[in-house]
Amino acid sequence: MKAIDGQAPQALTTALFLTFVFITDTNGSLTSRDVERLNQLLADTSWVDDALLRAALAGLGTHYTALWKAYDAGNISRDPQNLAAALAQALNGLDANSAANVSAALRLFAQRIADSGSLALARLGVSAAARAKQTALLDFEHLLADIPGALAPPIEASETTATDANATAFSAAAGDLWPAAQLEFAQENTWKRGRTRVRCVQVTPETHNAKSFTFVTDPPRVLTYKPGQFITLEVPIDGKIVHRSYTISSSPSRPYSLTITVKRATNSTVSKWLHENAAPGFEMEIAGPNGNFSCLDAPAEKLLLIGAGSGITPLMSMLRWLSDTASPVDVILIYNVRTPNDIIFERELHLISSKMGDKLRLAIVPAQAPAGHAWNGPTGHFTENLLRYFAADFLQREVFVCGPAGYMGTVKGLLDHAGFPAQRFHQESFGAGPAAPAMVTPSAVSPPSSTSLPSAPPVAAAPRKAEAEGAAPASFGDGTVYEVVFSKSGKSIICKADDFILEIAEAHGLVLANSCRAGACGTCRLTKIEGTVLMDDQTALTDEDIQSGMVVICIGRAHGRVVLDA
Rounded to an integer, what distance in angstroms lies between the CA atom of residue 30 and that of residue 43? Predict the structure, then answer.
């Protein structure tokens, strides 16, 4: 046999390369992780005892680039016949003992190449080999076993080399029927942030005016986000792209799809369009995830989730995650709705409650029950009496609140009056402006029993928090004006000091992406080239974003001459 560098047979080196691409490049599925795994095997050959194969691995490391160029040009084929011929040539001329040792080492090499998936799964004891690699590995085993002199495969096959024909056929078919079946938890298969294209696969009616829309990415990817975060949809309406942000109601513990739950509102073009047009097969772009309203950012042993109407969606994402991960946490959910007919996720809430048992206390409270409705639970609005009745230990809990602005103002006012620590209060405000001050009273609530609830004097909700440190007042009376320059469009606009940049841009004909208009979603973020932009109550940008010059223009105001990259 001709040798490479006088050490390793050329045929054996070529057989190693063909084995690598045969297993990893099924249907063009070769990834950077596969190449990284091969380099690791070449750099550290302590896993193989056969000196001949070790020399061939060194030869592969030296000549890999040339072999890859030949393969990429089509001069080397990965088809089974070509691989079988290379394996036969590599073993030809070896004595029985050497042939057995080399074939055993080849089999070990193939198994290690197939196990090139997620290290996280490997640590959990889960096979890291994707379905396609498992099938290719089985084919390799059969090709090697048919070569005279090769060592027969072990009788007790490992999980990776199982030879059940039905299982093999099922695995091959599953990739076509369920693309997610072949997804590995690898970096290149994961969506973490940014724009991606999604396809609707399911629409689920939740109530008379709320629907859940479930999406998968195209091509398929594993979806990662924090429970409670939101995405921005790019919805094609009347020939234009309209941006709108919606909370993710699904849980990242189920990473193959993503769900939003949308309540149809009479004054919302997008929610109306989705309810009437979005069906399985509909495709669009999304961006995200964004938002800091997540239990993962404020871990605690005792949680109090408070929501109203469609404000249940981020809380549901958290509940699903807590349930799926069997989290050892004590949770109370208070959910206010208009009527029993407006309870979103009603059946699933009770299912999660039954699964979590004593770890979840569920309080669904309609404002009223229509005449003739079979509702035997409590009714009423959110009051101090209701809070103390269902969550007597609320002062000991981490609180997450989501709902209409007035509702959140009421909740915060009651908690402030009770001396609740501000740092343990978390409010989802995206999609609406800050909650206005409101007078709240402990109006009567009808509990599920005749228990007498203590009364309390009316209290005023806390006013809107002070503006960000270093920010100018919300209004100006000195007539100060500044210049805002949009560098790419060539527009220079003179504005007052209290004008929001997005609004002045729109008034001068600039079309810029935006969604929440409350400084929370980040859709309108731009890079500031020069100047100072004041932003009050923004939650979309991280400290790193701000340091790099990012600003959100929906709540951003110029403080001096400002140049933006737009």
Answer: 20
**340 vs 122, 263, 381, CA distance in Å?**
47, 15, 13
- Report residue 94's pLDDT band, with 50, 70 and 90 as the boundaries: confident
104 alpha carbon, distance to own chain's centre: 42
pLDDT recorded at residue 306: 97
Structure confidence at residue 503 (pLDDT): 85
Is 117:186 a contact under the CB 8 Å cutoff? yes
- Which pLDDT score is estimated for 429? 61
Output the pLDDT for position 158. 42
Closest CA to 437 of 400, 454, 462: 462
Query: 148: cis peptide before it, omega within 30°?
Result: no
Sign of the C-alpha dihedral computed for residues 148, 149, 150 and 151 taken in this order: positive
What is the sign, positive or negative, of the torsion defined by CA atoms of 364, 370, 373, 375? positive
CB-based burial label for 282 (10 Å; 0-12, 13-18, 19+): middle
pLDDT value of position 479: 61
Angstrom CA distances, 325 to 128, 252, 257, 403, 474, stand at 21, 10, 17, 26, 44
Q: Average model confidence (pLDDT) for the chain?
A: 79
Which residues make Cβ contacts (< 8 Å) with residue 448, sequence separation at least 6? Answer: 376, 377, 378
3-class SS letters over 309-343: HHHHHHHHHHHHHHHHCCCCCEEEEEEEECCHHHC
Query: In a 3-state reduction of DSSP, which class is residue 535?
Result: strand
49 contacts 102 by C-beta, under 8 angstroms: no
Tens-place pLDDT, residues 448-459: 433 333 333 333
Helix then strand then coil, % of the chain, to nearest 5: 35, 25, 40
Reported as a pLDDT band with limits 50, 70 and 90, residue 272 is very high
Reference 482, options 550, 545, 556, 546; nearest CA is: 556
For residues 309-315, average pLDDT: 95
Burial of 98 (0-12, 13-18, 19+ CB in 10 A): middle
- CA 147 vs CA 101, 140, 290, 503, 523: distances in Å: 14, 11, 56, 74, 60
H/E/C letters for each residue in 389-401? HHCCCHHHCEEEE
